[in-house]
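User: two proteins, same treatment. go.

Assistant:
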Amino acid sequence: MPLTDSAIKTAKPKEKAYKLSDAHGLYLLVNPNGSKLWRLKFRANGKEKSLAFGAYPTVSLAQARQKRDEARKMLAQGIDPSAERKAAKQAQRTDGLTFEALALEWFEYKAPRWAEGTRDKARLYLQKDINPAIGARPVKTITRPELVELVRKVEARGALNVAGKIRQWLHHIFRFGLATGVLDANPATDLDVVAAPQKATRHHPHVTFAELPELLGKVESATINPLTRCAIRLLVLTAVRPGELRQAPWSEFDLDSATWTIPKERMKARRPHVVPLPRQAVAILVQLQEITGDYPLVFPGQNNSARPMSDNTINKALRLMGYEGRQTGHGFRHLLSTELNGRSYNSDWIERQLAHGDNNEIRDTYNHANYLEQRREMMQAWADSIDALCAGNNVVSIKREA
């Protein structure tokens, strides 16, 4: 028998949910909490399915029957009403989805897989360059010419590396939209075709080995923070990346075994890196313990000890000492590589010390050798040669107290 309004009104909840059937698959589900929900049972593509029509009395019996009849018409035309409803909801969501919302979803998905430096750059470029231009736009309405214009504005200020990253990230964000079903096309493809020509590659500037005593002498006499002085010395002695040094916590160091172990989360190549510490480096770290040993970080920031030294501190100090365009913090890595390769050390030892990946991806995947003892001997010889050079030039050695 078809349902009546009076039967629906007088239906009382029971210990378990139960159904009151109408006709042609329409029924009312009465739940133990007293809610009364309209459902339609039907078959599509050989499978039994159900469709929700809302709650009684918000949706009346007559309205529920009207919705049922509309669904049955769709079934007669070979259309699955539940699939059609899902598609409509998805279209409604995607039509109003802004680029900023999609970019945030992409960032939150990718961020755990990135090194901290990559996360910071992606966040900065999104906030500074991308979102101000297209963030508020519905993502489906963004066109390739708009993206070309966005990137060209970045190129116009000479930031070609930033523009390259932005092209790459735009491409990945829209690909993410394709994969998650909110887009049908990627307008960020082929942006490199109209990219401004790159300037000739310029490696991080660095002095020659023969000029190192003069630089270290200026480091010693310059009016700079003692932590900055120690940081520069340690970069010379270890050839780590400046960011790896600035953000290093004391917990990574074992001074008894003269070893610094950097976890993969902090490494560019996303694999742990063991740094052998020559005696001179250990001496500097022992001195630093007296200054910052009570803090988690070896090089805490001046204004906030919970945050590391600013990423501009080392390069600013070198500029003030007259080395602008001649030496950067990263340049000490190039100095070590040039000098040790010139001394005919095994290139694998040097590359592992620099935490470089192998250009041969297959070889890189299987080559897990750390060459720790070989590198320990090599880096001690490097530190000793600096001391010898400084002594010959009447410059205070790098192991002098801070």
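Protein 2:
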Amino acid sequence: MGSTQGAGRYVPPGRHDEDWRWPGYDFAVPENWPSGVYIAALSPGPTAVPHPEPQRAELLDARHSRLLFVVTAREPGRGAHILYKVPVFTYHAYNRSGGGSLYGATHYSHDEPRTGTATVTLRRPGGGIGGPVKGFPDAHDPRTPRQTFAHWDAPFISWLESSGRTVEYCTDLDLHGTPGFIDGYRLLLSAGHDEYWSARTRRHVTAFRDRGGNIAVFGANTCWWRVEVTDDDTTVRCTKYPPGAPTGADADALRGSGGHWWEVDPENSLTGVSYRNGGGHWEGLRESTGYTVQHTDHRIFEGTGLREGDRLGAAHALVGYECDGAAHRRDADGRAVATGADGTPAGFTILGVADLPPADGWHTAAREDPAPERSATFGLYTLGGTVFNGATVDWARLLALDPAVETITGNVINLLS
């Protein structure tokens, strides 16, 4: 805990795509603060008002008077083997402070033409905590808005740290701006919804894998949109719509969007799976869907009691709100085998499959294969390092609900770190 005081002044609200030009205040991070994700509570008055440490994830969240910051390690990788990536680009993609997000202006009229490229500034309220957020409430966990730190990341981090593991933290900008930042670690972690990646972030993470670094994704829709970051690291842009896109169209369902990673360099060549082979976009409750598991003799299933054909997470809707998959076929034994036709690396082992009923409300993206069948698939591959992907954004939610999900998570981290 720490505090600082400053003479505040009023600054009028700005636009979503322009620096709000708030006054800055220096705060010296104490040397004994470990690397971590911190929440600052802003209070008026001459003395700081003490805030008790929140005991539940939803108490971290607030729509005003909060800001999120990440303390990185002074010597990255010296004190921990695990690095957790905080998806600030994705937080800001959905942050509507200033009247818009990477999904357009909130006052957008369906009679107006779409612009191809959307822009947001990182220098405005929100971005993980605070500010209005685009999207429907999560009917399976309504305590906090989706696309915020408190919704998926905080529960995962809370579990991770309570397990006794030593972890260090960074943001997208750290990986984007510093090529060697990740080199001292054995395992890079991502959880929840890590959707927006810059080309440099992806290049640096791929190089880490190629040198033998391991990656574990306990989320989905990962590395779906490609963003550009301005040279001063304050603004993010994404080309969402191709020229002549119809009014009101879903950008994910269109081809020719310059920001789609899969149309330029399929993201599953790194992540193993892609949103275009799964689905998502839910308002309200969805059918409770889990993974039908296979290869249960694999080390990550140790201690779960799961057998071939059992369903993982079905009781608590593990597969949703968005989920990813790999193109696959069935072998002579009925097991799903990745084909690699979509860019998934050879040797990707599918450990669980959840077929998505095409007429059951799943929103889907454009892809190469016109067949309607879609499936979420979780699994892993080794190419230099090993990459595991849980392929559903709701993985973190089930850590407190499903012992098998918790056990698999621990096994993956132990194996890769």
